[in-house]
Amino acid sequence: MLYSSTRGNAPARSLRELLSRGTAEDGGLYVPEAWPELTSSELATLSGRAYDQIASDVLALFGGAEWQQCDFTTGIRKALAGFERNDGPPLSRLDDQMWSMELFHGPTLAFKDYALAPLAEAIDRELTITDKRATVLCATSGDTGAATANAFAGRSRANAVILFPEGRVSDVQRKQMTCLGAANVQAISVRGDFDDCQCLVKNLYQSEAAKEYSYTAVNSINLARILLQASYYIYASVKIHNDCGQPVNFAVPSGNFGNVFAGYIAKQMGAPIGKLIVTSNENDVLPRLFETGMMSKAETIPTISPSMDIQVSSNFERMLWILKGRDGNATRDMQKQLAEKSIYELSQSQHSRLTKDFDAMKCGKDDALNTMRQIHKQFGKIICPHSATGYFAADQLRATLNGPIVVAETAHPAKFPTAVEEALGTLPETPVRLEDLFAREEEFTTVDPTVEAVLSVIDGIFGTP
Known about the structure:
single chain; 465 residues; alpha/beta; 20 helices
């Protein structure tokens, strides 16, 4: 299988090539030439397999003949060995309709571990096979940076550069990026918001120096990461569908549209999925789009759920390409309009097609805190403020949806103790993985949001290639 650019003016690439690429040469994002489909019998077979095998089988459909070279199977198994729970995300039925899917049992206690841990193994293997080195670029609103830093720490063939917005991640998230003590990981605090960090990564990747520095990206702009995340939607939907016989709806906290797009991929492959509900905080760029059909930038507002403090949802470009009939030129024009005028508008038919598969809802601070209290009172669960947006939307929409609703719990509550204390009057229990975190020394550099400033740090720490 080959992968093409959403903007239609870059060479097609293989899965193996995607491991070392973020954006395409024309600035677009890679998308598969077709969605592989799982038959009913194949889905039935998957339901009886272990999670690592399900993830391997799903990715094999996207890898074709190159599967053995990438060897994701070994990478997934090795990565999951470092999880608190390595048998897949725990699924719990809370009432007659509501389920939880806990995605925070990996090394950094967030859903990003399910993709970044095995992706790092695959990239490391590829660099070893080809006898090359790489510089991994990562823009983060918190969790991606922590997962990237942990996944690449100590690897001999890859350096990792993590860009995070100054003062806009939780203390736990920041220290997970800055306290590793790994010589090959450099955290950089950027004077700006996540969208500035994301723009820097894209500009670095498109720069003349990109080949010289051997940049690769592990944000969700890298499609290999999204494909890895699609596995847990297939895993969960098949298991719950077997229990109730109905399509499974998912409420997914989302800022950059990557995690929920992984659910969309799973649905296109034949997983028994109903609606995908996009939930956000006050930075409601996606709910506004789903309500009005207009993608419009606004100022990013700091919130109690910082991982969703995003106003430029880069991954939606893949969905836009689908809505535009896989027309690269039309997609490029819309993205150009967004960059220059901070807005574009879907046609009525495109908007209708979008809302056939998706719904969306904003959840402000008061609703999130109230939901955290409600979930704790009803089910004895302490949840993070991001997951609270999912539970809020699920509760608001449950009467309109047929079948079970699964809330993707995207992070452990201990990563956001201030919000938990404000909601419940008590701090969450500290997991073993975080017990000594605040005793460790931090190492990071703060810069202005310019390519030159970031390059200066990279050269100063790792040297000029």
